[in-house]
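Weekly structure sync - notes
Attendees: PM, LS, DV (DV joined late)
Agenda: review two folding runs queued last week.

Item 1: First target. Sequence and structure tokens pasted below for the record.
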Amino acid sequence: MEIKEEISLAKRILKLSLPVMMGEIMFSILSFVDRFYIAKLGINEAAGSSLSSTIVWVLIALSTLITGGTIALVSRMVGEKNEKGIAKSAEQSILLALFLGLFLGGITYFFSADIIGFFNAEPVVERLGIEYFSILLLGYPLIMIGSTSGVIFQSSGNTKTPMLIFTGMSVLNIILDPMLIFGFGSIPAMGVSGAAWATVISELFAASWIITLLYKDKKLNLSWIGTFIPDFVMIKRILKIGMWSGMNSLSRPLSAIFLQKIITYHGTYFVAAFSFGIQWISIVFIFMQGMRVAISTLVGQFLGQNNHQGAKDTTKTGLQFGYVFILIIMAIGIPFSKQAIGIFTADPAVIEAGSGYLVIVLVGMLFNVPMTVYAAAFNGAGDTAPPTIVAFISNWVGKIGFAAIATYYFNLGINWVWFAITLSIIIEGIGLSIWFKRGKWMHKVV
């Protein structure tokens, strides 16, 4: 690849990924603000609200049953300049999002107490967790619609609009959080329930806004006519691709539920430490999500043009960006790990445990680069099986298997649980690298 082409490709990746990163940063700020204000209520409130985080992660991951197929189909049709196909796949994706959001959200709400009870937390922590989780579930259909609509924009090459939506949602949540948690004027203090309601109201705002803009977008050329009439041929195509993406995205958070149970076994302080530490690790995920969207979109578009070299060059440039970023984060995050956790709490035990989590997991993030870049390429090509298989092995054998043995059999400390997380990242990074080099992903028919 010539230098000019390399620079041009780098600019295209940055142009697509930066708005995604900005949107993710604002979304992360939403979560950060929640953690910050809830922590002011006490350790029990922080631990209780964090119990539902892995469950919410599972529910959000289920959206990839739809978005996995949407990314592959819309991006490839953009490359083919198939306007009718773009509109049809987008409309059917929204229909699926609405149905799954209502169906899965309703079932989960009904069993919310049993789900939180699975963790065997202390009674007061469990009660607070149920209170927080049951309210969050009311916004689940909104999350499904918003995330699917955002992916439609991103797959068409428009990553700025979702960024603006997520920014607006986060700003609204930042305003509502202290008002609803601690009370304001005639608004009573609602504690952890207030934090959940602030999130749901913000999600309603975002979903309404993004749907409105989606149907006004002239490039996508969507129409209300026929939107809610199922096209089972297109739905089958979306789900056929998205099935593997859904299982892939589901494997990680499902394993995180069991990981949360293992962490809870160690004690409430470690649950809180984990919830604080993940807020900082999310910075890495923000960058990687931007890369993931950009690489998936470009790979899909290049393959739509039958340009295999362009698809391969995209992954090469993505790896270069990723390694530079991770090395910078490690250089900052490892020396200042205790100060980072200290922003949330002054408790020495929580700071020590959270600091250990940050140091151990940040080292493993070097392997998160090939894991993210190659998974994005597979998804953009519509070859979604390899990332799913590798993720299952890494998360259930590497992470849960190792953490469970270290905890229940050898009775080792919490740092061994943190190492299990890093081990899963290493396995996934190496596994995807090997599978990617086989090259079959470039010839996948969608």
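Item 2: Second target, run right after the first with the same settings.
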Amino acid sequence: MSEGNRDRRAALPSVDRVLQAPSTVALIERYGRGLVLDAVRDALAASRAAHDSATADDIAAAIAEPLRRRMRPSQRRVFNLTGTVLHTNLGRAPLPEEAIAAATEAMRSPTNLEYDIDEGGRGERDDHIAGWLKRLTGAEAALAVNNNAGALLLALNALAAGREAIVSRGELIEIGGAFRLPDIMQRAGTRLREIGTTNRTHLRDFADAIGPDTALILKVHTSNYEIQGFTAAVSATQLAPLARKHDLPLIEDLGSGTLVDLTRWGLPHEPTVAESLQAGADLVTFSGDKLLGGPQAGLVVGRADLIAKLAKNPLKRALRLDKVRLAMLEAVLRLYADPDRLAARLPALRLLARPRDDIAALAERLRPAVADALHGVASIAVAEVKSQIGSGALPVSLLPSAGLALSPTERSGRAVENLAACLRSLSIPVIGRIESGRLILDLRCLEDETDFVVQLAALRKS
């Protein structure tokens, strides 16, 4: 080792000296001694390896940013400007303030989760939401589990384990993450009896498939795709008499599910849970965090005797909701008791029903600020775009919207990807979509205009 390198190594402070420096003490107060100690040792080792000299304050300054990044929550707030309102990867439905307040209250102290205050004994956790679901759907009974795949898994296992469930081939859906209906049925211990063809299934196909091993008929609402052209499908209204004739339960999986007629707010019609029950479905399964606008949950409503069988199944305990999500779900369901104010109070519906002209006006207001922040990097134009309701909820139904189209000045192959990465690096990451060589920021879901604009200053410095 040269004399100069030996001198520089000797100039490095000891670990104890760095830990006693006022700037390091402040870091220990913020992050704890263990993390800071490890960071100091790593920084000193790196300086020795590079033959660098450093003071205690230099080391403290060097570890401050890595510590901040390490302690930053991995799940962070983002601006969803993708154009998909109920975005699976970005948390689906934003929750109303009533649900947030209910969750906070439930977390703060013990609750009567499974305690009947009137009787002074054990209660049922589903009672907190069952009454509202019965009122809003007309069902005899209801229960909740952790998501809709869990709801369907529970129903199939409780009612058709070791037996057959009849499903149209055109309804054998695959949802996000390569999660397929046949796989759910297999895990439930149910044998799939698929009938018909991809594009056409008739009532006689169901009738011909019924045999001694048939446990139920399953109808699946294909909310995440659409088959067009020479098609035929059998409705729940048609299937119900056949199911009753053979004393078979008819289950309809609505997937996204909605409790209200969305056409009231100018949105595409989606079958409501009440409509499915009125059509003759014995059980209906649907999600809580998509069109319903609540927390992640799987809901089952329908006949009381069938719900009772599901409630007694061991899987129910494995899939049940905790007190926090039940509190949030109850708060969301209460909003549906006042449909006249629902769009104003339920964020998911408010964003879906947001007028295009209001979004276009927002785009005009924001364009100068974004153009200034990206001066010389990209040109900015107001653009007419189409929003998507959800990746798994009416994905083929598009809503007129407006946004900003960012065209990189640089014409390299990765220029638009680099621009998207730059926006994602902001303190509140901005997530858009790349389309035809441009970064599109659909503004339908942007309500916090102030926070969006304030952080643009960081782009001018980068």
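Discussion on item 2: The chain has a mean pLDDT of 93.
Action: LS to circulate a short write-up before next sync.
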